[in-house]
Amino acid sequence: MLIPTLRKVGAEAEMASHRLMLRAGMIRQLAAGVYTYLPLAHRTLYKVEQVVREEMNRIGAQEILMPALNPSELWRETGRWDTYGPELITLQDRHERDFLLGPTHEEVITDLLRNEVNSYKRLPMSLYQIQTKYRDERRPRSGLLRGREFLMKDAYTFHADRETLDQAYQGMYHAYERIFTRLGLDFRAVEADSGAIGGTENHEFMVLADSGEDTLTLCDSCDYAANIETARVGGHEGEKSRPVAEEISTVEKVSTPKASTIEQVTKMLDISPHRLMKSLLFDVDGEPVLVLVRGDHEANEVKVKHALDADQCELADEAVVQRVTGAPSGFAGPVGLKEKVRIIADHAVRDLFDAVTGANEADAHLLHVTPERDFQVDHFADVRTVQEGDPCPHCGGTLRFSRGIEVGHVFKLGTKYSEAMQATFLDREGKEQPLIMGCYGIGISRLAAAIIEQHHDDNGITWPLTAAPFAVHLIAVNMKDENQARLAEQLYGQLVQNGLEVLFDDRQERAGVKFKDSDLIGIPLRITVGSKAAEEVVEYKIRRSGESGHLSAQELSNQLPELLKQVDG
């Protein structure tokens, strides 16, 4: 077999899964974020795909395969040709027609259904595919966890009503739970942002790992879980008592030369950060909006976007800041703006009084600023990023952070794509209605890497049986020994005949090399034919737990089912 194991890899392989997949001879890089899957990796990907297929088929989804090469016209219909961003890999054919390599397939599946399904009688319908996707990641890294070419399962459901969408969403949600459980993963389903896909309700499925890129917010008292981008802050239902505005001193301007950051201002004025009112100007669908948060909090771009029901939201550039406030960044405030703009404030700002804000003038701040007396807020909302120790929005418990790797995402798309592409059906009354959609993705190649992130030790990978490239690793210590060769060949034939997938190491290598490779590759159960072969005795070792012992060849045959039950530890 082509299993080119390595003892060391370069420093660029920072993640455990990246290092181990390179060292175990599973993958080789062709270009940044583009990998060849060697035999061991291909077998694992096939195992993962089969688990996914079984659970998709179990809930009535039908497998199809759509083209990776997409005409630009479909993406122009939805507007995503222009809005998806630089991750879109585009090209032209010989006739100079625009195409792209599909990063996802909402447009293609919607085009298929608008041409093939036109009556409520054909609904609901659930379709899925397992296919290579392409995204031009700015910084492809971490091996298969963030690549430019990757395997993905994407499913789409179509409905005549919201009730069947809700049912399909729950069906997919539970199918995902079964998939990740079968693959031996510790995971959480968390509330999340829908990003470029769009839609309303959605959940990410996160594999818990200290090496994960995503920060998860978990409650220590209930099952609330959310991505930090969307995690809600509890405890702001009622206002805290504060002095009436008349009892607070009038606004006073003070000089704060070169103090444009929270740290600089608090040090110069000798105050706590929570006394500050941070003012940030955002460009929201082309309109400037002033967002206010407490000085010890951070504004959350995703929450601002959702609070204003916007399509695009980002920090305004310096020219807009100067125009609206009359001052450079770091000195903005809600009092005395040069241009009238909408003001949205976090709930915590409602409880501020006698606060410090920028004076909309370089090197100056205002003291004694109080909302509602000195300026008016157009809208209060939860627009800050949660912090550890914040109250849970569900039960009031305490929120804590964890790290995770996203391996799946489920969305309720609604009619976003069907309306844009005029994908309609006739309802029971004969009226034309837009198809209602759901979308559900699992990163297959990313999932294989995430399994390794949770299942490895200092010696290598410790595969769960469901994802392992082989179930049994059979090692003949010395194939030149007649008894060892005979017994090893005999066992190999028996194991294969019993339906087990066996990797048979009959190489002319030292025993130490074979054992190191075995630990590195991580196949769940190792059987070694060595010095006791003449007595028909072999050694077994469970990779995960390290448990080992000796059995006769006959005992091994009888004990195999029990040993395989123990391999996941």
Characterise the protein shown here:
The longest helix has 21 residues, at 162-182. Helix content is 27%, strand content 29%. A hairpin with a 5-residue loop joins strand 22 and strand 23 (432-434). The protein has 3 domains: 16-232 and 400-452, 2-Layer Sandwich (BirA Bifunctional Protein, domain 2), CATH 3.30.930.10; 245-381, YbaK protein (Alpha-Beta Complex); 470-566, Rossmann fold. The radius of gyration is 29 Å and the shape is globular. Helix 1 crosses helix 12 (444-454), helix 2 (39-58) runs antiparallel to helix 6 and helix 2 packs across helix 12 (444-454). It is of the alpha+beta class and 569 residues long. Strands 3, 7, 8, 9, 10, 11, 12, 21 and 24 form a 9-stranded mixed β-sheet that branches.
**Straight-line N-to-C gap:** 28 Å
Count up the helices: 15
CATH architecture of the largest domain: 2-Layer Sandwich
CATH third-level topology of the largest domain: BirA Bifunctional Protein, domain 2
Q: What portion of the residues fall into strands of 2 or more residues?
A: 25-35%
Shape: globular
Report mean pLDDT, rounded to a whole number: 93
What is the structural class?
alpha+beta
Number of strands: 31
Keywords: Aminoacyl-tRNA synthetase, ATP-binding, Cytoplasm, Ligase, Nucleotide-binding, Protein biosynthesis
GO cellular component, one term: cytosol
Catalytic activity: tRNA(Pro) + L-proline + ATP = L-prolyl-tRNA(Pro) + AMP + diphosphate
Subunit structure: Homodimer.
